[in-house]
Task: structure prediction
Amino acid sequence: GFKKADDTLCTAAKSIAEIITIPGYINLDFADVKTVLKDGGVAVMSAGFAKGRNRVIDAMNDALRSPLLNNNDVFQASKILFNISCSSSHELVLEETQQINKFMEQFEDRVQVVIWGISIDENLGEDLKVTMLASGFGVNDLPSMKQFHQQEENKNQAEQEETRIRRDNQIRSYYGKAGVPPRHFYCTPFVMSEADLNDDALIEKLSEEPANQRTKQ
Result:
């Protein structure tokens, strides 16, 4: 539980630090990160790795399938930032750049802001890394939030039902299975005459008797 949360936070912090500090051909900085996060509400971050001929597409798909996304669909986001990292010994070739452009075209009609960059990380060797930051989800677009609200609703309903059952059991323990019979009060207007207003005995009697039990007699 806590370890998984710590790992997630560590990955996010490390990824953001790499985005804004590692130099490259198309540099990203803190202003780009701020653009994606500002007024974006809920945000998610993930990273994907791949090597080989189709490493660009494979790494991007790996980032989209990352458990850090918690099953959230990035296509529901309004702002997305991608950073592609590779080593200088295995730089991007023209075909891979075209693959990146084609991949980004998927977001043009659905996402308001798409920012991407290319950086050099010698530690990657043959690997290529894609770091993704997405924000601007509506609360109801997140399956995890829908599930949370549904769980809260189910919990409240269960608590209400438990309270009702406990109350009914208490009533039965005191009054039997029949419970408490409904009580009906029939109100009759009590109009005092001028003589009644001067009748001290009547006024005293009325003051001692609950209003719902008063009658003309």
In short: The mean pLDDT is 78. Helices lie at 2-21, 30-37, 55-64, 94-104, 143-175, 194-197, 200-208. The chain has two domains: 2-137, 142-180. The radius of gyration is 35 Å.
